[in-house]
Amino acid sequence: MESQEINTNHEVAGQSEENEMSQLFGKSFETRDDLLQSTKRFYLKNGYATTIKKSKKDRFVRIGCDRGGVYRNRQNTPLELRKRKSSSRLINCPFEVIGRKRSDGTWILQLINDSHNHEASSDMSGHPSCRRFSIEEMRSVEEMASSGIPTRQILSSLRQKNPGLQAISRNVYNSIHKIREENLGGRTMVQALFEELGEGEFFYNIKHDENGCLTHIFFAHPNSIILARSFPHVFVMDCTYKTNKYKMPLLDIIGASCFNTSFYSCFTFMEKEREEDYVWALTMFREVLGPNCQPLVIISDRELALMNAIRVVFPTTTNLLCVWHIEKNILSNCKRHFEAQEDWDAFMSSWNGVIRSSSEIDFEKNWRLFEELYKERREVLTYIEKTWLPFKEQFVDAWAEKFPHFGHRVSSRAEGAHAKLKAYLQVSTGDFRQVKEKICLAITNEFQEIKALLSSGRIRIPHNCNNAFFKEVVTKVSMHALKELYKQCEMVKHGTMDPSCTGHFLSSMGLPCAHKMMTTWKDGVLPISSIHPQWRIDSLSLTCSDGMMNEEDNFKEMLSELQDKFKKWPLMHKEKARDTISQLVSASLHFLREPK
């Protein structure tokens, strides 16, 4: 009985398939696409994938099995010599149908060969044509990829909308690559990059070698320029790596806003990390800041080439060294000389006491004590004396706290910015254009966050500062500055400040300290004039800077002046001017190429 029932089911299924097939081949289709989609659906249901073998517009379309044809070695490379071991699904399947367009404009399907030389597939995900995205899905891929969404999340999002989606991550990668190639529009990557930088009103410059290969690229986003000119006082400079396929170091210059947040001010891809490379990059950065603008403080590692470049380009700027990196270097060079952890902890405590010396006299005393304690560990003392002591004015509190660093003594801002950037990049194999696109996403987001903090700070009053003492500064200085001022005010209230004032808080933070509050404004009002411009939001404007507008106005004035003079020149001068202008207009950067 069971055998008879199974046979009956097979007969019913066969009859159903024959009915569908007769309907397919006896039907008229309005368009070519209708014919293709109907054919694809019918044969997919039966375990076969179809593909277009040949077609002629408005005439015919020849459809075959996707396993039809034979593998062709287009490069004529012997299989045993190939680096990539590939395979082929083609086994010369003879199946073939043809669609023809009739005189009335409709399409019909004709069967040429209905046989296959292989079994039907039980799972169609192995066929590439079944993993293709629809037009709507391709739009979604493009939108999500341009927003910086990782490939795995793009695929998950598409699968939520279409649970039957058979695509894999490789299909997403291939689709993104195809979209990028289409966006190039026949241009090289370098040509497209420069056009986009120019159209996006970036400030950028380049250097190349005698072969036309790019060696340096400097660029600053318009929003970054606004922020850098709004907060030009403190910057952190550091190189990061593994950001591009050329393995070029990327100099990242990070600024600090009045809200105690970081922002990207500019980027430089450099050939190497020599002093001349840094000098070129910092010279470009000086142009971004505008005329007669020197940062107050630049924080960096003990990168001698960078430190020398800072002295050359920004001679009046104070270069402080990151105390965290100093501790990290001492750890890697000195800990091996200490067997017990307790001894090492005591050593670091003594060293931190040297760094935190509040005056030059205290430093001399603490250093002599340090020398006495570790005179038996000559290697450790020699390393510190030769490597770090010559730069004591750049990291010991007795000197460093005299400069307006606004609370920034470590390069952790740069480390955090590097980590955020790499989260946007996702991979370390992108070209310059791909890296620039991801950087733009990061900059746009951080700029909007700072704008929101500015708008919020102008309308919000902290409850603990809602009193007469702070009435001149609330909504006029940033929330972060108000928090620091409130801490000092609480020290006055509870009498917890140091007996004597070193002046370090006022000079390093640009805010009045507890001693100043107690002696000058104990029962009065904290004046807005006592606050450094770094913290002011009442006069802050995050719109196109005056410097950028002036540059455009100056250029327009030059063109207008040239036009007036051109009318008065003799013919010889006019022809020379035309030739010069023609050369400038037709100048091309097509000879430039990607780095080797």
Compact description:
The protein is built from 21 helices and eleven strands. It has helices at 2-25, 32-45, 135-146, 151-161, 169-184, 189-199, 222-230, 275-289, 304-313, 323-334, 341-355, 360-373, 378-387, 397-400, 412-425, 432-457, 479-494, 504-509, 514-520, 546-568, 571-586; strands at 50-56, 60-65, 96-101, 107-113, 203-208, 214-220, 234-240, 250-256, 262-269, 297-300, 318-321. The relative contact order is 0.08.
Structure report:
With 596 residues, the protein is of the alpha+beta class. Helix content is 48%, strand content 12%. The protein contains 21 helices and eleven strands. The strands form two sheets. It has a seven-stranded mixed sheet with strand order 5-6-9-8-7-10-11, with helices on both faces. β10, α9 and β11 form a beta-alpha-beta unit. The longest helix has 26 residues. The chain is elongated and about 100 Å long. The N and C termini lie far apart (75 Å). The mean pLDDT is 90.
